[in-house]
Every structure is written in structure tokens, then in C-alpha cells.
Amino acid sequence: MNDRIEWTHHDDGVVELQLARADKMNALDAAMFSALIAAGERCRDDPRVRAVVFAGRGKAFCAGLVMESFQGMEDGVGADLLARTNGIANAPQQVAWVWRQVPVPVIAAVHGVAFGAGSQIMAAADIRIVHPDTRIAIMEMRWGLVPDVAGMALWRTQVADDVLREMIYTNREFNGSEAKLLGFATHVSDDPLARAMELAHVIADKNPHAIRGAKRLCNMLADATDAEILQAESDEQVKVIRTPNQMEAVMAGMEKRKPNFVD
Three-class SS of residue 217? Predict the structure, then answer.
């Protein structure tokens, strides 16, 4: 993941990721793109991970793409947008989409700015906690582009259709408080990282197999049929019911103690 992301794996399975390009407001260059994908894949493939929090060092969450990325669209990140290099996604889309592939809840702690690709990475989180003064914008139209980085596939379950269209067409900037009202954010907090970590530790104390099953179900909501969701709900329940972790959840609750789950 090179020097672009700081990784902390807490004892209870919470992974804290910090975008670490503070001098550039954590803007995305090719190295940051690669680091984000690598971090997401590592979280996706590690059974010990129970929740993920990502945030940004310094004054901002993420200021979007660096200008060099626009100037060199034929190279690196923008080399071939049509190629599905990461399953159903191209490489830039995977920077955000990989967090939906992470099988545990992902929480974004957002402050400063979340512009362009930063707003789309924010959208990839299951839960988004923002500072009320955070500046947010879907910026692509400013540069004569359409939204990318998987934003359209992510926002459709979060924001009303007409609201999303307005923000895309105008690239209007809005703050964290408005983001909560519009659906772009889950919670507003004066200390987004502390709130995110608190929530992540709560999630890490739940049956990890049930959490993963619940995320799989949540990921289906955008496009699955009622029949598919009902069947999947039953399938996931069968996987966890009467298993050691499920029984441990019951016993820990009855005995009013911290559960001891097995990953």
C-alpha cells in the first residue's frame, strides 16, 4: 500500500485506515489509487477483520483527483476506462467499489473536503459520518466530465433521484449538515473519527459471521427482486443459526459479558 495509507489493526478486529497524503489534502494520484485498492483487497480477504474505518490525515478527507490525472488521461489511472480490469469495474471505479466488496461494515469519517472522487469514496462506505462543516461536491461536471469512480452505482441507494441529478448537473458544493439532510451522510459529528471508531468497536463485538451475512443482504437491496431477497435472507440465517458464534451471542447477552467469537 506504499506510503499513501496508514494501517492500524486493533485487537478487536477493527481496521483503521488513514489517507496519508496530508500535504496534498489526500488528493488521488496513481499511487493513492493503487494503495486504496490494495487496502480494500486486504480487508476483503482477511477473515480477522470485523469492521473498517477510513479517514484522512490533515485538513481533508479527500480533495479528489490531482490535476496531473486530467493532464495525462492516456496514462496510468485513466488508461482504459472501458476495460473491466477488476471484475465488473475498471481500475478507477474499483477504488470505491472495492469497499462494497469488503465483507464487513465500512465506516467513513469525513472532514475538511470530499470533492469529486473523494465524495465517491465516501459513498462506498456502509455508514458515513461527517463533520457539519465538511465541504462536499460531485465535481466532475466542472471539468466537463460525467460522474465516475462508481458513484452512480453507490448513490442510488442513498440519495433521492432528483437531488442526485441536481448535484451532478450543477456540481454545487454543500456542507456536512446538508449532506445528512440529503442522504449523502448518515450522521453529523464534531469528531467524525471518534464517532466512527466508537461505532466500529460496537460492530466488532457482534457475531462476525452474522455481520458478514447482513452485509451481503444489504448489498442486494439495490437491484435484487423480492423473491431473491427473501431467499437470500433464509440462506444467510441457515448459515448462522445454532452455530457456536450464534450461541455465544445468546450466552454473552444472558450473562451480561463481552462475547468471545471465533473468526
Answer: helix
